Amino acid sequence: MAEQSPVARIDLTQEEEDNLVLAIGGDAADLDDTLKPFAAAALREYVDMLNGQAMTTLTELRERRFLAILVSLPAKDFPTDDQIAKWFGLTPDRARNFLRSTLARNRNRLRDVMKAAAKSVISTARQTDDEDGPFEARFPNALVIQMLNEELAAAKAVRSPITRKPGTFDTYVIPKGSMSELTALHP
User: Fold this and answer.
1) Which residue from 49, 81, 86, 132 has the highest number of Cβ atoms inside 10 Å of its Cβ?
2) What does the angle CA 22 – CA 24 – CA 28 come to, to the nearest 5 degrees?
3) Non-local CB neighbours of 180 within 8 Å, separated by 6+ positions
4) Which residues of the chain, if any, have pLDDT below 50?
């Protein structure tokens, strides 16, 4: 497979630049780097189109675009529901459903993305008080946590689920036995 690296330049107004920073985060000075995964996704969309892959609905186009973005993003930048909502003009609830349906319909193509996101959660987990205590990890997307809980439920040994830490939005408690299982599943 030949890797291609086309370069394109576009002129942005100050308002467009400001809106991009609001939508995808980062600083205006770093937009070149911040936009790279999105540029790769857009290029993939055009390559597919030019190779005759027809898309029949706006929903299918939106899902393909999102799939290409997910594949292009580094695992540590797995998007939050709020980010997805901003990118696609959705409410956070619809963004969560959009992510869920995209993951379900593209399970095989996103397997490596989801494994990398799982490893990201596991690598940031830190044990709390003592060596027998649970671990805590911050992660912005609950669907990745749901996927990890599904893996724990399917484990041979009975494991406790990952739970949201009370009073937080993105901090999760991982019981010690569950952490051992997850590190074995995602070395």
Assistant:
1) 81
2) 65
3) none
4) none
Cβ atoms of residues 44 and 68 within 8 Å:
yes
The type of residue at 14 is Q
Range list of β-strands (E), the chain: 126-127, 135-138, 163-164, 171-174
**For 107, what's the count of Cα atoms within 13 Å in the CB-facing half-sphere?**
3
CB within 8 Å of 49: residues ≥ 6 apart: 55
The verdict on pTM exceeding 0.70 is: no
Tokens at residue 78, please?
């797995």
**Among 59, 22, 23, 64, CA closest to 42:** 64
| Amino acid identity for residue 180 in this structure | S
> What secondary structure, in 3-state letters, does 132-158 show?
CCCEEEECCCHHHHHHHHHHHHCCCCC
Q: What is the pLDDT of residues 37-51, one digit of tens each?
A: 888 878 887 887 788
Radius of gyration, CA atoms only, the chain: 19
- Residue keyed to tokens 């399970």: 107
Do the Cβ atoms of 71 and 109 come closer than 8 Å? yes
